[in-house]
Batch of 3 targets.
Target 1
Amino acid sequence: MKKISLTIAACLIGAVSQAQLIDDFGVAGLGEYTQTRVLDNGIAEVNVSFSDASGKLSATYAGTISQPEQVLLLRNDFSLAIGYRLLVDVSFLTQTSSLDFGLAVSQTATPAGVVNPTPTDTRLGFNWAAVYVRPSQNTVRAGSFINGVAVTGTGILNVDETLVGQLFIDRDSATSFTLGYYDTSAVRVVSRTAVFTATDVGTAIGFYGDLRAPGTLGDLDNLRIVAIPEPAATALAGVGMLTLIGRLRRRA
């Protein structure tokens, strides 16, 4: 009976929200992505790298300079359409590694990167947004870069990194994106909404990392796009699930 009930629940939920898996990192290699350093604090040495050798995505700072380095890892063979959600599973152990790791959407997969000696910061040269875990401060944060203006200090959510189950970015309209996370009990928590004037943000999707000292951040897994369920559809699915389970119990 329990197995039947769970099967019914899965079918009803699946009908409301169907997932398009982009990357489960089951096959080693990140050739679909372009890695771009968008801030290096004047340090020419490349310190940040990404790896999926474990079957999940992690970010590592391997240099000895210990200076901020912000990096995007983006792809444009998938895009985030209106009414859809970019989602990734999060599995962070308790750690104090510095600083951020999470999801990103952008208007391009190949933004201009930093070069030696200048520019040392190209984040304001294109439109993008990110939501990320910051283990060293037990927070989830969201940043946006819109028409040359950076907003990174609002919508800070206090949560232990071990309690973050998923990060998400919802595309609510052509220009509006909601950023936040699901905790390990599947409770949705919103950080903030980023509103652009450009309509091409979401053409590229992927990951953002800000690492500042030797260490590894991760893991992220099962990057996917799902339909944002309509509230009425979600409620109807829940009612239908309870009704069917109740009938089966009476028959049993």
Target 2
Amino acid sequence: MPKEMRKGEISEPNLEEQGIFPKRFKSHNDSAGIVSDYFRKNKKFGTEAELLERMEKPAENELGTIYVHTPYCDKICSFCNLNRKQIDNDLEDYTSFLVSEFEKYGKTPYMKSKKINVIFFGGGTPTIYKEHQLERILKAINDNFTLTDDCEFTLETTLHNLNPKKIKILEKGGVNRLSVGIQTFSDRGRNILNRTFLKEETVKRLKNLKESFSGMVCTDIIYNYPDETVEEVLEDARIVKELKIDSTSFYSLMIYEGSQMSKDIRNNTLELNYELEKDFELHDAFLKSMLESGDYEVMEHTKIVRKGKDEYRYIRNTHQGKDILPIGVGAGGKIDNFEIFRLSQDKAFYAISSDENEMKMKRISGLLQYPKVYFDKLKEYVSDEMFDEIYKIFENFEKKGYLKIHETHTELTPEGIFWGNNISATILKKCLGGAKDVKSSSLFHINRKHKKNS
């Protein structure tokens, strides 16, 4: 059974290094953010002119990624506060904006020297576009960039935004991976999370998508929504396995300021009673159910994949620090040593980093997102003395039952996967000499009770 620090207990690095954590980190952003926050002071602001000047020269690395953000939905999930808004126009202007961005960056020597092996459309809901708009967008990508033959091309989607014609357009444009925001199959859970369709129709449409789409079909599952039962999370796992979904993410519910659910909780119209033991029970039930058939394996802390199927190359490229060209409002990425975040169609934030230590720490952060951490890879970025210190922490975690130490690597247990982001954060803080945690943007991920009005 997982244990957090007792109320009032002083949070000290040595306690975390012994596997006693002040709270559970549910997202990789909670651990990776430690690195970004630590090196923030070393960055300097840049400009688009400086970025474009850099892009007048060829890239040093041939392979690259494009991330495209669509900050629009036609129905917003109750837990979501991401960079999105409910659609209020036909998106014709935004489509033209994306096309112009593809043309602007695609003609640079930097991008012409690259072969794109990953494209990821996130949101929002990227399949919200009309058929002719999708055709324009996909054509612009293929016209302006060189894609590898095995390019992993993903669109996030909902079931109700897809139709047979759109699926054909996506396939023709090179899309070979769809990530479907299911969250849960439970009728009660889908109502709480403001999802379209009840269980029966959801399963039917997902099954039809698997049969009609030639690429991979992946899902997102959320557990520990209000009053979720073990039976409900096991049913989610059963359906994912039965439909042979190629991969699924699984996150404990995170409620953010600005979401409808956060407002309902503050207004006492929704009850939230987060308990660590319940979080672990649901995580453990889902994970073990997915693994028991032998068809699935853990790829990273919050991703389970069918063996031999989904590589999820996008997240691997991210962890390895490869170039990600960000296109669209709300998109973030990096080109060479420029970090970029698109604030609006005419504004963006640019930061320039030349700190080699930051690069090393980000690579370590990436290595720690996987269930197996290989010692030779870790030693590429830390001194022998630091590795010895990290190894001692691994030994402490092994005593807690979080991982097993093998000759060449460590391997997380199911309980270790539950605490995976805390384990990552602990190692990162050790490497940084005691850096502080970053404040989570999730409002309610520590023990807290809110009562409904009677």
Target 3
Amino acid sequence: MLSNIGNTLLSLNILIGISIIYFSFQNLNNNKILIGKKIYRLCLFQSTFIIICFLTLVSAFIVSDFSVITVYQNSHSLKPFLYKISGTWGNHEGSLLLWAIILTIFSFFFLFYNKYHPKNYRIYSLIIQNILILGFLFFLLFNSNPFSMISPTPKEGLGLNPILQDPALAIHPPLLYIGFVGSSIYFSAAMASLITNYSGKLFAQSIKNWVLISWSFQTLGILAGSIWAYYELGWGGFWFWDPVENASLLPWFAMSALLHSLIVLEKRNLLYFWVIILCLLTFILSVTGTFLVRSGILNSVHTFANDPSRGLYILIFLSLMIFASVLLFFSKFKNKEYNLNSNSKETFILINNWFMIFYLITVLLGTVYPIFTEVLTDHKVSVGPPFYNAVIIPIVIIFLFFMSVGPRTQWIKNKFYNLNLLFKILIASIFINFSIIYLFQGYSLLSNFIIISALFLVFATLIDLYKSLKKQNIELPRVISHLAFGFLILFIGLNYNFSIEKDFNLKVG
């Protein structure tokens, strides 16, 4: 019964998606300024049906309907209620349905909340978003159906992998998927922007909040996964540069660069085509991560079961997406020269972007290099923490310096302020670092540089917060994110300097 309802709703969503694209093209050809009510209704039905479809699968897990293969393979009648629900997305099919629901909901709210932007821009965004939705729905229905049935019905399920039965991991995938899939909306918006020539400050405003939402959820998702790894997988470790961990980090770097570039586009009307590249790149990297996880080409605790047909479908989908976006971009690209003052705020933001892209390229190369090496030479090569630590950590130290100094620059003007204060903060950071060394008797040259640079950023940002509150000119998003990043790097440096590793022989009981 539940299986039939789910399949019917998936099929209806495909028909609605096709209808939205058809009526959207019709709406482009009329002279009306507003988008037709029919399209709004179809988008509402689309969102409603996909939510009901997902709740149908959740219900199958709750009532332990083992006639559904996905439930049989990932649940058990005695499993706690929380893990029955989290089992819905703890598998390939259910997680893809979660992808589809997030794609659809983001599409509806983008259309609804961007009413004051041009009709054609919104319509093209909707068309492209629905092409993406249809791509995932066809994949779901014909290759990865979460409502496939098994006969005869087993009396009991196989249960969810015990390692996945954890509160942090219950929320880790949904948070991460909102970040991954949320990037689809500004991918679609960037394509629509190129088609309609809608650019500048207004374009930046139309996607800024969506970038912030997806970046926030992506950050929380990575954090939840690290907490889980700390006490479940790593026995005290929180990041292992596992290929699938890296796949979640790649779009995060692109999102972070995009967030900063949007500020320049909104304030100065600069870097438009760079913003477009980052919008396209973020979602492409998200789908690339999906391909790596679900194709079976990576060996990781995070990967789903190996199925070449699934990997092939995602690879074709990814290739078409890259081809279309690159073709459209270069058909519209115009090379512009920007005259930026060397010490202006926009220059420091651009430098921030270069750091992010450096990290992105480093992690991407480290992730895919073993794959290509094995294909070309038939030899397995491992790229692990020593490579990433040697390449990334020294650059992070320089990056933290620019993060501390950058907010003391001004738009357009080639001018710093409060440099004397920054120098005092740096001296204080060095003093505190050596006090920690003296008290806890731990010393590593590299980790000391990390601790000093992290303290420098933390104290500089705290002073920004104090001055902002005093002037009631609060930049809370920047202050909170920079402060959190500073503390993160500080704790990594302390962990690197003072952690103790011991080997034990465990006994039964």
